[in-house]
From TrEMBL:
Listed name of the protein: VOC family protein
Classification via PANTHER family: METHYLMALONYL-COA EPIMERASE (PTHR43048), METHYLMALONYL-COA EPIMERASE, MITOCHONDRIAL (PTHR43048:SF3)
Keywords: Metal-binding
Domain VOC: 2-132
The species this protein was found in: Exiguobacterium alkaliphilum
Length: 137
């Protein structure tokens, strides 16, 4: 398991992109809008050295990012860990008593499969597990 990316909720996507690309000398590698119901987020993917940052701007007041920001404000939303096989990892962790937010299980338009762990296991931090089955690891 390794860190795949860090998701950061922002109020101004262009301002955040400028900070990460200018001050931290990152590279904007992708920008897109996820219009899936229940997700509704504009996303900017920034590479900073070996690390990946996903800047997340809610595009609907009912998106999970909007709800997160209403409760906690802007900032780190989640840390994603890449696993070799998502189903195997979920099954193994469930055997150890870990629960998941089952409604978050999905495959993105970019081919990443993901699910969020119940944050009660991680001190309130949202942990995403993900894999990329169509991309050689």
């Amino acid at each position: 398991m390794q860190i795949d990316h860090t998701g950061i909720a922002v109020r101004d996507l262009d301002e955040a992109i400028t900070f990460y690309t200018t001050v931290l000398q990152g590279e904007l590698v992708d920008r897109y809008t996820n219009t899936a119901v229940g997700v509704e987020t504009e996303i900017a993917v920034i590479h900073v050295g070996e690390d990946v940052i996903e800047l997340l701007l809610p595009t609907s007041p009912t998106s999970p990012i909007a709800r997160f920001m209403k409760a906690r404000g802007k900032g780190v939303h989640h840390i994603a860990y890449r696993v070799d096989d998502l189903e195997q990892s979920i099954d193994a962790l469930k055997r150890d008593g870990i629960t998941f937010l089952e409604d978050t299980l999905r495959t993105t338009a970019k081919g990443r499969r993901l699910i969020y762990m119940d944050p009660r296991h991680s001190g309130g931090i949202i942990v995403e597990l993900c894999d990329y089955p169509k991309i050689k690891q």
